[in-house]
Amino acid sequence: MSCGGCACEAATGTGATASEAYLQGEPVREARELVAELCRHFYAQGWVTGTGGSITVKVNDPAVPLADRLIVMSPSGVQKERMVAEDMYVMAADGKVLSAPAAKPWPNKPPKCTDCAPLFMKAYLMRGAGAVIHSHGMETCIATMLNPGAKEFRMTHMEMIKGIKGHGYRDELVIPIVENTPYEYELTDSLSEAIAAYPKATAVLVRNHGIYVWGDSWINAKTQAECYHYLLDACIKLYQLGIDWTTPEHGPINSAKRLRSILSPEIPNGCHSAETSKIEGDLRNGVPGAVPVPPDETGKEEVINSLVANVESMIKADRKITSLKQLQGHIWRTGFEKKELQGVVFEDVPVALKNWHANGIKVYIYSSGSREAQRLLFGNTTYGDLRKFLCGYFDTTTGNKRETKSYFEISQSLGVDSPSQILFITDVFQEAVAAKNAGYDVIISIRPGNAPLPDNHGFRTIKSFSEI
């Protein structure tokens, strides 16, 4: 039957080449026209003015798996509101150009595929996207300027969050922020790292630049892009009114948040506000060590001292709080940059990671430490940089490690057909139970300092990764 595969490929337009008849066929033509129509629509929204921004979609052909479908991309440096179907580039699923537009007379520029192409391909290859939108909407730029050091944008309890895949009204929306570069293609690595580090995200913000949004279809990508723009615009308006968009109550922006830039502009957005919310809850519940945060009028020093006292109390109690882990990541980054810290891993770990990577096994980390802390630890170990063997990182923004729903969320993010395809290795019995209840294959790693396991716990145990 192998000879039939070649004929099928030519007929459906999969692989690195496609027949001329297929390129001129109805599915490709409709995709070209769709991109032109969307560009005109987004121009009216202010997302792609001045030739900026770009759009790409997969050709809608049900006979071809989504991952193998041809790709249509808009060109670069073109008035987006004047584009027509013939202006589009058509590519194979691996990004090879199959069809390019013909040159137009002066004053039109020679045809050139969008500078966003390598970034679009990351969303296609890493997330199985069906469409990607790059917008230069004003709100996408200004929202990243509100806290110049923030690595994430956070918002919760807004109705339009429900329009973002995998989110509900009460969920916290987290959008990674990467720093802008002089040339679009130079963003490829940082965008790729953000996609890997934030498996639940369907967008990445580029500071002072814009946003990349992807979805499994053009409708899903467009819907999410509209919701993101709405939410970012709302954030800017709330900021102007002095209202906090990161907490469920949406009350006045508190003292701790106003001191964010004084304390450290590098601490991720929402860390102080989330911490203060925890403090208020601890005070209501009578948690030992919790002290109130005084208002601005009492002076900067007193506010800082109260925050430090609360943080130290939470650390001593080993509280598994996301904002604490973000602060941990910030402290670690400083320590690693100054060469004062080094990551320590068991000697069997580097060998196992290298072997799994060589055999095509994808390895992810799920830790109560922040994603930044994980990257710092594995990037600065006594055995060198081990990040090249890892595919991504999960932390408590995904959920508590002892809750089954967290593992279900991870399996959805990884896109496996069944949770049983995931092997979870842990040294904590409660985590093993939660992962098993989510359908994972689970092994408990016995290491020095582990808490004792219950009798008849029912899990396979190992003392070295070499046993796997």
UniProtKB/TrEMBL annotation:
<feature type="active site" description="Proton donor/acceptor">
    <location>
        <position position="159"/>
    </location>
</feature>
<keyword id="KW-0511">Multifunctional enzyme</keyword>
<feature type="domain" description="Class II aldolase/adducin N-terminal">
    <location>
        <begin position="33"/>
        <end position="236"/>
    </location>
</feature>
<dbReference type="Pfam" id="PF00596">
    <property type="entry name" value="Aldolase_II"/>
</dbReference>
<keyword id="KW-0456">Lyase</keyword>
<comment type="function">
    <text>Catalyzes the dehydration of methylthioribulose-1-phosphate (MTRu-1-P) into 2,3-diketo-5-methylthiopentyl-1-phosphate (DK-MTP-1-P).</text>
</comment>
<dbReference type="GO" id="GO:0016787">
    <property type="term" value="F:hydrolase activity"/>
</dbReference>
<dbReference type="GO" id="GO:0008270">
    <property type="term" value="F:zinc ion binding"/>
</dbReference>
<dbReference type="InterPro" id="IPR036409">
    <property type="entry name" value="Aldolase_II/adducin_N_sf"/>
</dbReference>
<protein>
    <recommendedName>
        <fullName>Probable methylthioribulose-1-phosphate dehydratase</fullName>
        <ecNumber>4.2.1.109</ecNumber>
    </recommendedName>
</protein>
<dbReference type="InterPro" id="IPR036412">
    <property type="entry name" value="HAD-like_sf"/>
</dbReference>
<comment type="pathway">
    <text>Amino-acid biosynthesis; L-methionine biosynthesis via salvage pathway; L-methionine from S-methyl-5-thio-alpha-D-ribose 1-phosphate: step 2/6.</text>
</comment>
<feature type="binding site">
    <location>
        <position position="136"/>
    </location>
    <ligand>
        <name>Zn(2+)</name>
    </ligand>
</feature>
<dbReference type="InterPro" id="IPR017714">
    <property type="entry name" value="MethylthioRu-1-P_deHdtase_MtnB"/>
</dbReference>
<dbReference type="GO" id="GO:0019509">
    <property type="term" value="P:L-methionine salvage from methylthioadenosine"/>
</dbReference>
<dbReference type="InterPro" id="IPR006439">
    <property type="entry name" value="HAD-SF_hydro_IA"/>
</dbReference>
<keyword id="KW-0378">Hydrolase</keyword>
<dbReference type="InterPro" id="IPR023214">
    <property type="entry name" value="HAD_sf"/>
</dbReference>
<dbReference type="Pfam" id="PF00702">
    <property type="entry name" value="Hydrolase"/>
</dbReference>
<comment type="similarity">
    <text>Belongs to the aldolase class II family. MtnB subfamily.</text>
</comment>
<feature type="binding site">
    <location>
        <position position="134"/>
    </location>
    <ligand>
        <name>Zn(2+)</name>
    </ligand>
</feature>
<keyword id="KW-0486">Methionine biosynthesis</keyword>
<dbReference type="InterPro" id="IPR023943">
    <property type="entry name" value="Enolase-ppase_E1"/>
</dbReference>
<feature type="binding site">
    <location>
        <position position="209"/>
    </location>
    <ligand>
        <name>Zn(2+)</name>
    </ligand>
</feature>
<dbReference type="GO" id="GO:0046570">
    <property type="term" value="F:methylthioribulose 1-phosphate dehydratase activity"/>
</dbReference>
<dbReference type="GO" id="GO:0005737">
    <property type="term" value="C:cytoplasm"/>
</dbReference>
<keyword id="KW-0862">Zinc</keyword>
<keyword id="KW-0479">Metal-binding</keyword>
<keyword id="KW-0028">Amino-acid biosynthesis</keyword>
<dbReference type="InterPro" id="IPR001303">
    <property type="entry name" value="Aldolase_II/adducin_N"/>
</dbReference>
<feature type="binding site">
    <location>
        <position position="116"/>
    </location>
    <ligand>
        <name>substrate</name>
    </ligand>
</feature>
<dbReference type="InterPro" id="IPR027514">
    <property type="entry name" value="Salvage_MtnB_euk"/>
</dbReference>
<keyword id="KW-0963">Cytoplasm</keyword>
